[in-house]
Structure formats: C-alpha cells, structure tokens
Amino acid sequence: MAVDLSQIVKAYDVRGVVPDQWDETLAELLGAAFARVTGATAIVTGHDMRPSSPGLSGAFARGAAAQGVDVTEIGLCSTDQLYYASGALDLPGAMFTASHNPARYNGIKLCRAGAAPVGQDTGLTEIRELVERWSESGAPEPAAGGPGTITRRDTLDDYATHLRSLVDLTSVRPLKVVVDAGNGMGGHTVPTVFAGLPLTLVPMYFELDGTFPNHEANPLDPANLVDLRKRVREEGADLGLAFDGDADRCFVVDERGEPVSPSAITALVASRELARNGGKGTIIHNLITSWSVPEVVRENGGTPARTRVGHSFIKAEMARSGAIFGGEHSAHYYFRDFWNADTGMLAALHVLAALGGQQGTLSALVAQYDRYTGSGEINSTVDDQAARLVAIRAAYEGREGITLDELDGLTVISTDWWFNVRPSNTEPLLRLNAEARDEATMTKIRDEALALIRSS
C-alpha cells in the first residue's frame, strides 16, 4: 500500500513520530528521492543525538548512494554545522533532527548546495510525491553507473575555525559564561567553538541525550530557562547562553539572570555586522521584532528590510537583497557570510565579543538596544481564525492615527504601539505579539487585543 506523507512532510522539513509515522525504510526512500530531485552527484548528511538519528541518517545515505550519489557523512553535528558543511563543500545536505520536539520525534532539514533551503515550493513536494509512489514499487535503479560511495568526514574543527574567522575576538576580556545545552548538540559544539577564548565555561546538561532528561531543549519557553537563570546568579557569571536541541538557536541571559530579548540581540549583532561592512548594508528583520531593530539599523548606516515570519522568507529575502544579516524574534540569526543560513553559535560569539570588548555588564550593554516593552508571544485557541482576524480589523479600521498591515496576519500600528496577530499554520491558534513605549500602554493594548481574539 502506498504511504501518505501529508502528516510528516511540513512546509520546510520532514518531521514526525518514529517509528509510528516514519522509519528507516521511508528514510531510505527519502534519500533516493532527494538524490533524484536535486540531481546531485554528491551530498552531505549529519544527525543529532536522538536515539533514532544514526539509523535514519544511515538509511537515507544508503538510499542516496543506491542512486549513484556519493555521500559524505559528518555524523554527530548541530544543524548549523551541517549548513557549514553544505556551504564549504558546496553540496546538498540533510540534517536529521527534530530540534526541540520530544524524544519520540525525528525529522530532516534539507538544503541544496550552499545551504540553500529546500521547502515545499523548492523541491520538498516533489520528494514527497516520489516517496509516496515508490513506497509500493521501491526506488528505481539509476539510469547509469553503479552505486555511490559512503564516507565519513569530521568537520567540527573546520566549522569552529570558520565561525571564529567571522568575529574579531582578539580583545575579549576574561568572562565567566554558563551554557545550558539542554542535552542537545550544543554540548558537542560549544567546547570546540569556544576553545582558546579567555572564558571560564560553566557547562550545564552537556551530556548528549535525546531523551532530554533535564528539561525540553526549547529555550523559547521560559520554563526551560529557569535552571540557567538560577545558575548564572549562583556563579556570579557575566552571562548565560541556552541552545535548543539542534543548537541552531541561541538565547542569552544577562548577569542578573534576566533573559535578553532576541530583538535586542538582533540589534546588537546588526550594529556589529554593519561596522564590519563599512557602515553599509541591508539588515532583514521579521515584522514582530521590536521597533528597536530598524531604529538601530538606521542609526548605524544600514537599511532595514521587514519580512514575514519564517526562515524561508528570511533566507529568500537575504538572497534577493544581498543582506548582510537577518534576525527573528525566535532567536534565529542569519548571516550572509554563513551562506545566508542561521547560526545561533555565531550570534553567541558576537555577544561574547561585544561584552568582552568593554568593561560594563551585559544588562548595561544591551539597554541601548532594548527600548520598548513587549508582550512576548501569546497563543490563543480559537474556533475560526479568519473570523477573529476580520473582527479585529473591524475594531481598528478607520480609527484616527491607526494603520493596518497584512504582510503576515494583521498588524495594527499606532504612533506609540503596535500589535500583530498571526494564525498558526498547524494548529487552531492565533499568535499575538504587542509592543509599546511603556509598560502601561503595552498592557492596555495587549489586553484589548486578547479580548477581541478570545471573544465568542
């Protein structure tokens, strides 16, 4: 019987429960289909620390090799380490990870040579269709030639060297940094990337364990920052860093144990990347990053460009505009000099360089980049997303001093505040983000918007 992959092939990746929704048999077919759709003669693969990852990654490699493709396996790696390999080797890549999802999940993030993303509109639909067809008959033999080779290659040192080449770390003073790897791939990459820097490293949960015994490897949830915040205060550390499961996102905690807004980190890194590029360049930010971001970009000579939420939109705009850097509220940070791909580790090095290049505290340093009060993302379950958005639009349309924007969901903008409401693509949710010049205004606008969202 032909399989239906509609539940596991998402907009930008493959993700589902193993072995209930997919297994090594399907992984092998996915490898064959990836080889066919990319037309590549060679690819690179890597995987995270989940129990199912080595088997799935190996099966994918066998499927690709059976199509005559030479496979370079880099083994255990972070997602941005796989992007490094794709860029440096100029090969399409496949990263086996489910990021911060629970242990029973796994997935594949696919890219073309140079870390160019593969999504539904750029090859993932064709891959799905081939696998669904081949699940009955098996993948066909390649038109010519024999099977490809499968070889191993270690890229960790080269990845670390490349990252350090993109940040001036020569004037960093001694710093004490607590790193919470969440039992994810940060425990594998941080020791090598930070080697040789004047850091006292306090590791937390560096043991690679895809069952996540200490907490979810999702720093976007404040509950998963509790341990790090406490440890930073106990250690008297200069800062704390938290990585998600595949270590492509990095969250920052200041010396007081207070989380630093990813928008403030976006603004800080943007100012540094503009300085590296002679005070010129385009900086991408999604529409729910703080007003601080475009302000700082303009103040530093750059050109801000606003996009929809999501890495596919950011990466497409990075490529189209030649932007030097991009940041999202979710702590994804994208760099032109890293093949337009996202790497939380490079953002972390920028924070270390900025903090270590002066004598003040991190809280004082980031204050200049954190100028407004934000609500954070608030999710509400609704029966009819479209109807709620229509009701919100009706409530604000025509009001004096109000503008409406539908780049992504609905954004309502005034002189002193804004809020955005976006529908989830996968759940019956509306996501609210609000920001204002002061706490009282933000609270008022947030509560007003929530009342409209949640009214029956």
From TrEMBL:
<dbReference type="Pfam" id="PF02878">
    <property type="entry name" value="PGM_PMM_I"/>
</dbReference>
<protein>
    <submittedName>
        <fullName>Phosphomannomutase/phosphoglucomutase</fullName>
    </submittedName>
</protein>
<dbReference type="InterPro" id="IPR005846">
    <property type="entry name" value="A-D-PHexomutase_a/b/a-III"/>
</dbReference>
<keyword id="KW-0597">Phosphoprotein</keyword>
<dbReference type="Pfam" id="PF02879">
    <property type="entry name" value="PGM_PMM_II"/>
</dbReference>
<dbReference type="InterPro" id="IPR005843">
    <property type="entry name" value="A-D-PHexomutase_C"/>
</dbReference>
<dbReference type="InterPro" id="IPR036900">
    <property type="entry name" value="A-D-PHexomutase_C_sf"/>
</dbReference>
<keyword id="KW-0479">Metal-binding</keyword>
<dbReference type="InterPro" id="IPR016055">
    <property type="entry name" value="A-D-PHexomutase_a/b/a-I/II/III"/>
</dbReference>
<feature type="domain" description="Alpha-D-phosphohexomutase alpha/beta/alpha">
    <location>
        <begin position="264"/>
        <end position="372"/>
    </location>
</feature>
<dbReference type="InterPro" id="IPR005845">
    <property type="entry name" value="A-D-PHexomutase_a/b/a-II"/>
</dbReference>
<dbReference type="Pfam" id="PF00408">
    <property type="entry name" value="PGM_PMM_IV"/>
</dbReference>
<feature type="domain" description="Alpha-D-phosphohexomutase C-terminal">
    <location>
        <begin position="377"/>
        <end position="450"/>
    </location>
</feature>
<feature type="domain" description="Alpha-D-phosphohexomutase alpha/beta/alpha">
    <location>
        <begin position="157"/>
        <end position="257"/>
    </location>
</feature>
<dbReference type="InterPro" id="IPR005841">
    <property type="entry name" value="Alpha-D-phosphohexomutase_SF"/>
</dbReference>
<dbReference type="InterPro" id="IPR005844">
    <property type="entry name" value="A-D-PHexomutase_a/b/a-I"/>
</dbReference>
<feature type="domain" description="Alpha-D-phosphohexomutase alpha/beta/alpha">
    <location>
        <begin position="7"/>
        <end position="135"/>
    </location>
</feature>
<keyword id="KW-0460">Magnesium</keyword>
<dbReference type="Pfam" id="PF02880">
    <property type="entry name" value="PGM_PMM_III"/>
</dbReference>
<keyword id="KW-0413">Isomerase</keyword>
<comment type="similarity">
    <text>Belongs to the phosphohexose mutase family.</text>
</comment>
